[in-house]
Specification:
Elements lengths: L1 H22 L3 E3 L4 H29 L1 H6 L4 H19 L4 E3 L2 H21 L8
Antiparallel strand pairs: 1-2
């Protein structure tokens, strides 16, 4: 059951990433074929999930003062920087995924969060059904 929930979240993140590439200028996946693009979206979604799972809690603890001083707006900057880090890791792995600068990452992270949330509301994973 855990694997099914993981796969649902991975697919939701990949779909959100695909929608982000359609909406946000500067966030692109340039696979040669549809299969290349789908594979790239899945791998980048996995990278994005790992980056968020590992670094975001650490950043929240270390930067809690900034979160308080900015009334949570610092989270938008953190999300953009994590999106840029995902881009760097994807480039290091030779994946055809590209984020063109901070502002593309900023808006891309916002679109990703909103679309992922909408998908999770529409299609809850197995852990949400309990």
């Amino acid at each position: 059951m855990v694997a099914v929930g993981f796969l649902i979240r991975l697919a939701a993140t990949a779909i959100a990433l695909w929608i982000t590439t359609l909406i946000v200028p500067g966030v692109e996946v340039t696979g040669r074929t549809g299969y290349d693009t789908a594979f790239t979206l899945l791998v980048v979604a996995l990278i994005f999930g790992l980056v968020n799972a590992v670094l975001k809690p650490v950043i929240r603890v270390v930067g809690c003062v900034f979160y308080l001083l900015t009334l949570g707006l610092f989270a938008l900057v953190v999300n953009a920087l994590l999106f840029l880090l995902t881009d760097r890791i994807a480039r290091a792995l030779d994946l055809p995924f590209q984020v063109d600068g901070f502002w593309a990452a900023f808006w891309g992270a916002i679109v990703m969060a909103v679309v992922t949330w909408l998908i999770s509301v529409a299609v809850p994973d197995s852990a949400d059904r309990r």
